[in-house]
Amino acid sequence: MNKTDEHLQSSISHHTKKTKGINAVASPLLVLVSFLFIWWFVCKFNIFPSYALPSPLDVIKSFKEEIIAGRLVNDVIASLWRVVVGFFISAALAIPIGLWLGQHAGSRRAFLPMLNFFRFLSPLAWIPFAILWFHIGDKPAIFLIFMAAFFPLVLAVMSAVATIPTIYFRVAHDYNYTGFALLTKVTFPAVLPQIITALRVIYGIAWVVIVAAEMVGCQDGLGYGIWEARNGLRLDSAVCYMIVIGLIGMGIDRILIQFTKSPNVRWGYER
């Protein structure tokens, strides 16, 4: 291949990447603009009354009002604190337990029915117990997030470990990997992609649960803000809080995605 062909191929590759980058931004932006236009159209022609569906302008005014008053910032901090604490406690306990159960078939069979039982039990069913045990404040919300995240994460990690190809362990045996070395050099890297995927899914569940938990067990937070707006018939404020919840959720999900680009994680993806 001569220099002209190489330059041409490089130009085509650069143009293709540039086009993909533009499309990656333009397509979501087009969908967003279309959604906002439909929302504006519905409000403009009173397809729904203003008290049932606030207009985009009303929501923008509500954003300004909530930020100036300081309520929105305080509620965001409160919700993030509860989600982070509950999520990290559940992950710190669920991942080691899932790794251990995945490597011990007898224990896995013994605990699987109980784990499935609690996984299918809605975390919101624990709300009365959370309030009775921990009263009002951060603790009941953190407890509900833990109950929502712990059991699905244990099962996800356990299933990932149980499906690791046996050839990995045979090679590890040839290198005399046992105990902690086997866990850190073979088992954990092999299942890390599945763990990150499970964390993304379960984080979404935790973010949904915190909104419901704060509606009944807290005096601040994004869920409490929606509940208060509903009681005051301020749906513009409720929509404001809903938008913030969605944006924060998307932001943290993007952070978790970045972990998949680590070389240690790619080890598991490319098996």
The sequence of SSEs as H and E is HHHHHHHHHHH
What structural class should be given to the helix and strand makeup?
Answer: mainly alpha
Uncertain segments: none
Distance between the termini: 33 Å
Main beta sheet, described? none
Mean of all residue-level pLDDT scores: 82
Tell me, briefly, the overall form. Answer: globular
Helix content: over 70%
Total E-strand runs: 0
Describe the structure.
- The chain has 271 residues and is mainly α.
- It is built from 11 helices and no strands.
- The longest helix is centred in the N-terminal third of the chain and has 42 residues, at 3-44.
List strands and helices in order, with pairings.
Layout lengths: L2 H42 L11 H14 L1 H33 L1 H16 L6 H8 L3 H25 L3 H9 L4 H39 L4 H10 L3 H25 L3 H7 L2
Helix pairs in contact: 2-10, 3-6, 3-8, 3-9, 4-6, 5-6, 6-8, 8-9, 8-10, 8-11, 9-10
